[in-house]
Design brief:
The complex is a heterotrimer of chains A (about 240), B (about 325) and C (about 290). Chain A has about 240 residues and is an alpha/beta fold. Chain A has 10 helices and 10 strands. In chain A, strand 9 and strand 10 form a beta hairpin. Chain B has one domain. Chain B is about 70% helix and about 0% strand. In chain B, helix 1 packs parallel to helix 6, helix 1 crosses helix 10 and helix 2 crosses helix 9. Chain B is globular and about 60 Å long. Chain C contains 11 helices and 2 strands. The mean pLDDT of chain C is about 90. The chains are: A alpha/beta (about 240), B mainly alpha (about 325), C mainly alpha (about 290).
Chain lengths: ~240, ~325, ~290
C-alpha cells in the first residue's frame, strides 16, 4: 500500500527552482533513503513535502489524500512527522517539554489518556533521555539532541517519519546507534523517508533508495540494486 | 485663509532645517543601513555648541545659572557645531562596530537621551532646563532694509541645504558611498574583500552627525533661544518618518519627505484660529504623520520618491 | 561604604516594575521578532484606561486596575490584528518603523483625550511606616506585591500549562513549532493579549509610583529595553532578572551620581552587557 506518493514535484526558493520533476514513493512499511551529492536538493525536497517551502507544481499524496502544499502545522495532523537536520529541538525547553510539544497535535483526550505511555515508549527507545527529563534540551550533546528530536517526532506515532540527515555531525559509534534506532522504529511499523549524506550506510539499512542529482531523480530502485550498480557506486557512493 | 508672508518664510526655514537633518539621516540609514536613533542628540549638541560659543553669560538676572559663555563670532559657532556633533557621532558610532540592527537603535536612542540629560542638568554650561537666551542672529542689524530678515535666513538655510545635498550625493556616488551601500546590503561581503567596515561605519556616523550639528547651529541662531525640550527623541522619530515616507536610500526622497512631513505639521499655522479641535491640532498632526508612515510602509515601502530596488534592499539589510 | 537601604528598597520597587514590563516585551519579541516601540504606549494607555475608570467613573482603584489591564490587553490584540499582522512577512526593521508610527498615534490620542497635564490616581496619600531606616510607601508595597503575583502567575502559565509551554516553544523556534502542529498565528494573538495586559499593569504601577503623563511609557522604555537585552532578548527569566539589576542599579547609583542621571545607569549597564555577553547574562538570547 503506497503511503506517500510524490509526483512531478517542482519546487525551490523564490524564482529559483531546485527540485525538478521528482517522483517518489514510500510504502507503508518501507524505509527509503534519498542520497546524492551536496546541493542536489535533498533537503529542499523534504521541506517541500512537509510544507515548509512552496511547491510550484506536482503533487504529494498521503494514503490517497492530497496533501500538496499543506502548511507544516496541518501536515502533522495527516500523520507525517518531520525531523529537520538542524534546529530540531526547542533549546530552552526541557527534554520532557520537548516531548510534550511533540505530542501537541494529540487531542486533549488522547493526551490525558496515554501521554505517559507514549513518553515511556520514547524513554524505552532512548534510555538516555529518561535520565534527564528536566534538563534543558539545548545543553545536551549533539547525539542526545538528535534523540530528543526523534523522540518528539515519535510521540504522535506517525505513519511516516521524515528524517533529514539524522547522522550529520555525529561521532562514528553514535552513527551506528542512530541507524540502529531508525531500523528499530521502522520495524515497529513506521515508514521512514530519510535523506542521508552517509549514502552507503543508508542504503545498507534501507529497503529502497532514490538518487537525487541536480534536483532530478536520476536513479531509483531497491537498495541492493543501487549498491550493486557500478554507475551509482562510482558516482555517488564515494569511499565510505 | 490668511497667508502672511512672514509665516510662509518661517515655515520654509523650518522645512529647510528639517531637510538638512533628513539628509544626514539618509547617509546613516539610506546609504549605510545603520539604525541611528540619536539624530536629535546630534542636533542638540550642535545647537548648544554654537549657542554657548557665541552667547556670553549676560546678567540675565537672578535666575541665570549659566557660568560658561563665549563671545565668538557666529561663524565660529557654525564651524564648531558640526565638529562637536561629529565627534559625538563618532563616539556613538563606536557602538556600531559590535552592535547592529535593533540593538544599535536602542543604544543610540539611549545615547541621545543621555546627551539631552546632560544638557538638562549641567546648567552651568547650558542653562539646564531653562532657556538659553539671546543667541545672536547673523547679520541681525546689518541687513539692507529692503531684505526681510527671514528671507535672508532662508537663503542661508537653502544654501546649506543645497550644498549638503550636493556634497552627500557626491559621497554616495563615490567609492566611499559604494562601500557604504555594500555594508548596507551585507557587511560580510566588503569585509571579506578587505574593507575596514568599522571605519566606514564610523565615518558615516560622523558625517551624518556633523550635518545634523550644523543644522542645530542654524536652528539655534534663528530661534535665538533654545531649551532641552526642543530636542526630544520624538524629533528623531519624525525625521525617520520623513526619510521613510520620502523614500529611504535617496537624498531627493529625504528632502521630499522632509517637505511633506514638516509641511503637514506646519500647515495648521495657516488655518484660521477658531476651527473646532483647534487646541488639539498639534496632536492630530502627529497622528496623521503616524498614519501616513504606516500607510506608506504598507502600500509603498520604497517611499514616495525612493528608488524601488535600492530602498527595499536597504530595508532588508541590517537588523538581523 | 554602606549603601542606604532606602535605595535598595526603591531599587526593588523600580526593579519590579521594569522586570514586569520587560517580561511582557521579551515575550512579544520572542514570538514576533521585532522590537515594538509602541510597547511604552501600551503601558501608558493601560495606565490611562485605569485612570478613566478610577477618576471619571469613580471606581475603586483595584477595579480600575483590572479594567486598565483588560483594556491594555484588548488594545494590544486590536493593534496587532489591525496593523502589525499586515506586516508579518516583512523585515523586522519595517515592523520597528511601523511601531514608531503606532507610537505616534497612541501617544497623541492620549494627549488629545487626557491632555498633557500630569494626572494622578485617586488613592489616599499616606505616609508609610518606617522600619530599619526605610520608608515603605503603600504604593510601593502594592507595586511589589502586584509584580510578584503577576510574575508568579506568568511563571505558572509559561511552565505549567500546555499553551504556555507552546508559547515558549514558538518563541524558541517558530518554524519547528509549526512543524509540531502549533498554530503560531493563534498563539500570536494570545501572546499579544498577555503582553498587552502586562504592559498595562506595568504602566499602572508606574502611574502609582509617580504620575501619569502621555510620554510616561516612552520614557520608561530605555531602562526596560536595557533590562530585556541585558537578560537576553526572548528569555523571560533573563528579562526579570535584568529588570531587577537595572532597577537596583539605577536607584543605588543615586548614592554616587546626581539622581537626574539615573537613566544613564541603564544605558551603561546595557553597553557593558552587550559588549561582554552579547547573548545576554545567561546566554539565552533568541536572536
Amino acid at each position: 500500500m503506497t503511503l506517500l506518493d510524490v509526483s512531478g514535484l517542482e519546487s525551490g526558493y523564490g524564482d529559483l527552482m531546485v527540485v525538478h520533476d521528482v517522483d517518489l514513493e514510500v510504502e507503508s512499511d518501507e524505509m527509503v533513503a534519498i542520497i546524492g551529492p551536496n546541493g542536489a536538493g535533498k533537503s529542499t525536497l523534504l521541506k517541500s513535502i512537509v510544507g515548509l517551502l512552496n511547491i510550484k507544481s506536482g503533487s504529494v499524496t498521503l494514503d490517497g489524500k492530497d496533501v500538496t502544499g499543506l502548511p507544516p502545522e496541518e501536515v502533522i495532523y495527516e500523520g507525517i512527522c518531520h525531523v529537520p537536520q538542524t534546529e530540531n529541538i526547542f533549546p530552552n525547553l526541557t527534554v520532557l517539554e520537548n516531548l510534550k510539544m511533540g505530542a501537541w497535535a494529540l487531542s486533549e483526550s488522547d493526551l490525558d489518556a496515554d501521554f505517559d505511555d507514549r513518553v515511556q515508549q520514547v524513554y524505552d527507545r532512548f534510555p538516555v533521555l529518561e535520565e534527564r527529563p528536566d534538563q534543558k534540551a539545548g545543553t545536551l550533546s549533539g547525539g542526545q539532541q538528535q534523540m530528543v528530536a526523534m523522540g518528539a517526532a515519535l510521540m504522535l506515532d506517525p505513519d511516516l517519519l521524515i528524517l533529514d540527515e539524522p547522522s550529520a555531525g555525529l561521532a562514528p559509534q553514535l552513527v551506528d546507534e542512530v541507524f540502529e534506532k531508525i531500523v528499530d522504529i521502522n520495524e515497529s511499523g513506521t515508514a521512514i523517508l530519510m535523506v542521508e549524506q552517509n549514502a552507503r550506510r543508508a542504503l545498507r539499512e534501507s529497503d529502497r533508495g532514490v538518487v537525487l542529482d541536480q534536483g532530478e531523480d536520476r536513479f531509483e530502485g531497491t537498495a541492493e540494486s543501487l549498491l550493486d550498480s557500478d554507475e551509482v557506486t562510482e558516482l555517488y557512493l564515494g569511499t565510505q | 485663509m490668511v497667508v502672511s508672508f512672514s509665516l510662509v518664510m518661517v515655515t520654509l526655514i523650518i522645512i529647510g532645517i528639517y531637510a538638512i537633518l533628513a539628509i544626514g539621516m539618509n547617509m546613516h540609514w539610506g546609504d549605510t543601513g545603520l539604525l541611528n536613533f540619536a539624530h536629535a542628540g546630534f542636533f542638540a549638541v550642535g545647537a548648544y555648541t554654537s549657542a554657548i560659543l557665541t552667547t556670553p553669560v549676560g546678567d540675565a538676572g537672578l535666575l541665570a545659572s549659566r557660568t560658561v559663555g563665549f563671545d565668538f563670532p557666529i561663524v565660529v559657532g557654525m564651524i564648531a557645531a558640526p565638529i562637536t556633533a561629529g565627534l559625538f557621532g563618532l563616539l556613538l558610532g563606536i557602538t556600531s562596530i559590535r552592535l547592529d540592527g535593533d540593538y544599535l537603535a536602542i543604544v543610540t536612542l539611549a545615547g541621545a537621551e543621555t546627551a539631552r540629560l546632560i544638557i538638562s542638568n549641567e546648567a552651568w554650561l547650558t542653562s539646564g532646563v531653562q532657556t538659553l537666551n539671546n543667541i545672536p542672529r547673523p547679520l541681525d542689524e546689518s541687513l539692507p532694509a529692503v531684505l526681510p530678515y527671514d528671507v535672508f535666513y532662508f537663503g542661508l538655510v537653502l544654501l546649506v541645504l543645497l550644498g549638503s545635498y550636493a556634497l552627500f550625493r557626491h559621497f554616495a556616488n563615490a567609492p566611499f558611498g559604494r562601500v557604504l551601500h555594500a555594508i548596507r546590503e551585507d557587511e560580510d561581503v566588503p569585509k571579506a574583500l578587505g574593507k575596514d567596515t568599522a571605519w566606514f561605519k564610523l565615518k558615516s556616523f560622523a558625517l551624518g552627525a556633523a550635518l545634523a550639528g550644523l543644522a542645530g547651529s542654524l536652528w539655534a541662531h534663528y530661534v535665538y533661544a533654545i531649551q532641552p525640550t526642543m530636542f526630544l527623541s520624538n524629533l528623531t522619530f519624525s525625521i525617520w518618518a520623513m526619510v521613510i515616507i520620502g523614500g529611504a536610500g535617496s537624498y531627493f526622497g529625504a528632502v521630499a519627505g522632509a517637505v511633506i512631513v514638516t509641511g503637514i505639521r506646519q500647515i495648521t499655522r495657516f488655518l484660521p484660529g477658531d476651527i473646532p479641535l483647534g487646541n488639539e491640532l498639534p496632536y492630530l498632526r502627529l497622528i496623521i504623520i503616524g498614519v501616513l508612515l504606516i500607510a506608506v510602509l504598507y502600500y509603498r515601502p520604497h517611499g514616495m520618491f525612493g528608488d524601488k530596488e535600492r530602498s527595499l534592499a536597504g530595508m532588508s539589510g541590517g537588523g538581523n | 561604604m554602606i549603601i542606604d537601604p532606602q535605595f535598595i528598597w526603591n531599587g526593588l520597587v523600580v526593579g519590579s516594575l521594569i522586570a514586569l514590563a520587560g517580561l511582557g516585551l521579551t515575550l512579544l519579541f520572542g514570538l514576533l521578532n521585532f522590537i515594538n516601540i509602541a510597547y511604552g504606549d501600551y503601558m501608558a494607555m493601560g495606565a490611562y484606561f485605569a485612570l478613566a475608570a478610577n477618576v471619571r467613573l469613580d471606581l475603586p482603584i483595584v477595579v480600575s486596575i483590572l479594567i486598565g489591564a483588560v483594556g491594555g490587553g484588548a488594545l494590544a490584540v486590536v493593534v496587532h490584528k489591525a496593523i502589525f499582522s499586515k506586516f508579518m512577512d516583512r523585515d523586522p526593521i519595517v515592523l520597528l518603523v511601523v511601531s514608531i508610527g503606532m507610537a505616534f498615534i497612541l501617544r497623541n490620542v492620549i494627549r488629545i483625550v487626557w491632555s498633557t497635564d500630569p494626572r494622578y490616581y485617586a488613592v489616599p496619600v499616606e505616609e508609610g511606616p518606617s522600619f530599619l531606616g526605610i520608608t515603605f510607601l503603600p504604593e510601593q508595597v502594592a507595586i511589589i506585591a502586584m509584580s510578584l503575583i503577576v510574575l508568579g502567575l506568568l511563571f505558572l502559565l509559561l511552565h505549567r500549562t500546555r499553551i504556555g509551554i507552546a508559547m515558549r516553544a514558538a518563541s524558541d523556534d517558530t518554524d519547528l513549532a509549526r512543524l509540531r502542529g502549533i498554530d503560531t498565528k493563534r498563539l500570536v494573538i494570545y501572546i499579544s493579549l498577555v503582553g498587552g495586559i502586562i504592559a498595562a499593569l506595568a504602566g499602572i504601577m508606574l502611574g502609582l509610583d509617580s504620575n501619569l503623563r502621555p510620554n510616561m511609557g516612552f520614557i520608561a522604555l530605555i531602562p526596560i529595553f536595557a533590562a530585556v537585552i541585558l537578560g537576553g532578548i526572548g528569555d523571560p527569566t533573563g528579562a526579570v532578572i535584568g529588570g531587577y539589576v537595572i532597577g537596583i542599579g539605577q536607584e543605588v547609583s543615586v548614592a554616587f551620581i546626581p539622581s537626574e542621571y539615573k537613566p544613564v545607569v541603564g544605558l551603561v549597564l546595557l553597553i557593558i552587557g552587550l559588549l561582554t555577553r552579547p547573548d545576554g547574562l545567561f546566554g539565552e538570547a533568541t536572536r
